């Protein structure tokens, strides 16, 4: 990876050139990375790729106009042309009254040192071994008849940001992953597919390869013999694998861009009870070894741990500088950006806090209901909150899981879904967005 000082020097020089060429303000970002990925199917290596590279992006602001250009070429000539193009574009684009860099007093003065980069480079040989071990374990599960493959990857990136008001920062992060997808059954009796996966900042923190494979195989086999059920209203249990999607829907609804446009079903919900008082949702950008941690936001503003939902009450929007100005609010340090795009609001590590009841206790009083392990389709309307998705899972009878269910659709509205949601105790912090098992009463189920 390039030396830290070298990256910051490139950005500082680029910003100086932009100012000299006529930019009133400028910021720049460079993202360098290396990665290795492999895929093994039926014991044979199908894919092996190693990549190294990076992009540099420059944003210039002239009055209330801005332009963003990017390039992978860092030669002196290419960077000079980058500046010329950016300044030329910024003189001709429409005005935006809300653009602009932070005020100096808004910038982060303390940046925590986070444990988010694995210093060990993982070899292709290690990844191949992991993928093969994973797939072998999946194929060993009785009833598994074919494989869609197992994939393993490792990557490391270095990000540097700087602007014309004196802020500069660089940090490194890494990530590893492993997954397997297999098929159970046959053409006569029916076939089902399922998967499992693991991802982590440190390669050593991944779940065991054989465990992932065995889990993927078992999940596929459990689906065999799935049935339809009749249309009805029933309590629904979301497995953690799908319950975190509900948290993602919340994050989309409280994103400052949606609020400023008035295109969110929660646009009038600030400081109101969005969930029941037993629900708290937390964001923690500084959690060590977490996949979305970062020491500050992409505009140099401080970020911090906060309760997005506090005992059911919505406490904040996710704001960058532009959306905060539109809404006449203080920015919340949620800016994210790439080399060719302007900053926009985005969350970091978010999780729904664990509840008071075990998953088994949540199901205990359900006479008839659905335990959902997979959701299909994207039938979510962010403007109205209407929610309709295909569902796969298991029928709950008298508090116990019975036969597998497929070809059904669940429907409701996220406003009422959030209010009726009850979390279980089984929260695990594994990904960028996490949630425990949750129960939602009275969802509409469309079947036969």
Account of the protein in words:
With 448 residues, the protein is an alpha+beta fold. The protein has two domains: 4-220, 2-Layer Sandwich (PmbA/TldD fold); 226-448, no CATH class. Helices cover 23% and strands 37% of the residues. It has helices at residues 4-20, 76-90, 124-139, 209-222, 240-253, 256-261, 321-327, 359-363, 414-420, and strands at residues 25-41, 44-62, 65-71, 144-163, 168-186, 190-200, 232-238, 281-283, 306-310, 313-314, 335-336, 344-345, 350-352, 368-376, 386-397, 400-413, 422-423, 433-434, 438-446. The chain has a six-stranded antiparallel beta sheet. Strands 7-14-15-16-19 form a five-stranded mixed β-barrel. Strands 10-9-8-13-18 form a five-stranded mixed beta sheet, with helices on one face. Strand 9 (306-310) and strand 10 form a beta hairpin. Helix 3 packs parallel to helix 4. The mean pLDDT is 96.
What would you say about this model in short?
23% of the residues lie in helices and 37% in strands. The protein has 448 residues and is of the alpha+beta class.
Instruction: Tell me, rounded to a whole number, the average pLDDT.
Output: 96
Q: End-to-end span in angstroms? A: 57 Å
Task: Report helical residue fraction.
Answer: 10-25%
Structural domains: how many: 2
* Spatial arrangement of strands, main beta sheet: 3-2-1-4-5-6
Low-confidence runs of at least 5 consecutive residues: none
In total, how many beta strands? 19
Strand content: 35-45%
Coarse morphology = globular
The arrangement of helices and strands along the chain is HEEEHHEEEHEHHEEEHEEEHEEEHEEE
* Gyration radius over CA: 24 Å
What's the total helix number? 9
Secondary-structure-based class equals: alpha+beta
Please summarize the sheet with the most strands. Answer: 6 strands, antiparallel
